[in-house]
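Structure ticket #2291
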Amino acid sequence: MEYSRIEKILASAFVLFLLLASINFLDELEDIPKRPDFHDYESKYVPSELLENQSRLSLLSRNFRIRYDEMRDNLTKAQELYVFKREEYRVALESNNVTEDLKNEYLSAKKDYEKALLEFSAVEAAYKEVENQLYELNNQIQELNEMAWREYRNAYSVYRIKVLLLKLLFVLPAFLASFLLYKRYKNIYAASLIAYSSLLLAYLAVEAVWSSLQVIGLSLFGAVATALALYYIRREYLKPERVHKRRIAQNKCYNCGFPIKDDYIICPNCGIKLKEKCENCGAMKPIHLDFCPYCGEQ
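Resolution: structure written out below.
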């Protein structure tokens, strides 16, 4: 049965609107099973006391780091001054030009350096101790988080299976019903229904593959889609008959694509025969044309 263009357009719109509504309905089905929340599993495995202790140690570590940098700068300045006064005092001793002021400056610089060194060593030891405690605590929390993450992934996999089963309970009966209708009536309306249900089933399959495999699923889908596209292009546009007719319309040799003139009988590039005699009118017509351009007979 032939259908008008407007009927085909309306049938396509019918399929499109049904798909949009159904996809939205499938998305709503994801809220029926309880979706796992990672924070629930995190609180189960990681006690709040550990997190509070982690926060406290992190703050303490930052404060010690600031203090550590200050003490290191003070030690560097005190050391530079001490080295300078020590060398100055040594040179004065060797030349017997030591004064009481020079000696006091040297002893004061030495005392300040030793004090800065003690303060820096104390802050450094405390800072390293806090860093070690924080490192051990972070490792402990990471191990507990990995346990929580494993249980969460298992629960989420069960959740995805439940959602998939719910969606299949909607899609498969729709596909079966449309298939039975098409088998019985075989009109444009039944064809629209089976197109809708087939596309919906394909959407569900792609969604399931993507949610479970993601990059691998996308790669497989892209590979299949590319292969189908290449097959379609080769079948529709690269068939020898189509290539030959396209080259003839462009005044080229149908075999090698070399430019030719209308009165050429043989291709000057590959030597293939370009024209044959029409059995009806006797005119020389291009090979591979279905109808003679002079008499219109096949």
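Closing remark: Residues 61 and 129 are 9 Å apart (CA to CA).
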